Amino acid sequence: MDIELFITVIRGEKYMSQKATKDDVKALATEVTRILQLMGGDLMRLQTLVYTHLEEEGKIERIICANCKEELLRPDMKGIEKSDMCPHCGENIFGTEQTTFENWDDGISGEEE
User: Fold this and answer.
1) Fewest CB atoms within 10 A around its CB: which of 10, 49, 63, 107?
2) 79 touches 65 (CB < 8 A)
3) What mean pLDDT is reported for the chain?
4) pTM of the model
5) Is the CA virtual torsion 44, 45, 47, 51 positive or negative?
6) What is the pLDDT of residues 10-61, one digit of tens each?
7) Which domain holds residue 106?
């Protein structure tokens, strides 16, 4: 076999495999996106079911964030940690910060910051 022909064949196959790989990656990304969208929808339905059941049982606190005015649903159950940070704006939902050790040493309370 002629060496130039051999190199051309190898280069041609290499190019084809790179193109096929790009197409495969694109197809995989599309499928992963579709699966994640389906899982997200299922998760939203499951969350709605759980929170509706907890509300019927009287185990939900409805809180309006003092900063962004979003209504928050917080489970009121033994053993479940209650965070005072708003998931929407990242601020304290009651509009006050807890006093830290550094602020305590400096004589600053959460309301003075």
Assistant:
1) 107
2) no
3) 79
4) 0.51
5) positive
6) 555 555 566 667 888 888 999 999 999 999 999 999 999 999 999 999 999 9
7) 3-112
- Report the C-alpha gap between 81 and 88 in whole angstroms: 18
DSSP assigned state of 111: G
For 12, the token pair is: 């041609």
Which residue type does 49 have? L
Is residue 112 very low, low, confident or very high in pLDDT (cuts 50, 70, 90)? very low
DSSP string spanning 81-96? ----B-TTT-SBTTS-
Q: Annotate 44-94 with three-state secondary structure.
A: HHHHHHHHHHHHHCCCEEEEECCCCCCEEEEECCCCCCCCCECCCCCCECC
Sign of CA dihedral 65, 77, 40, 22: positive
Decide if pLDDT at 7 tops 80. Answer: no
Q: How many domains does the chain have?
A: 1
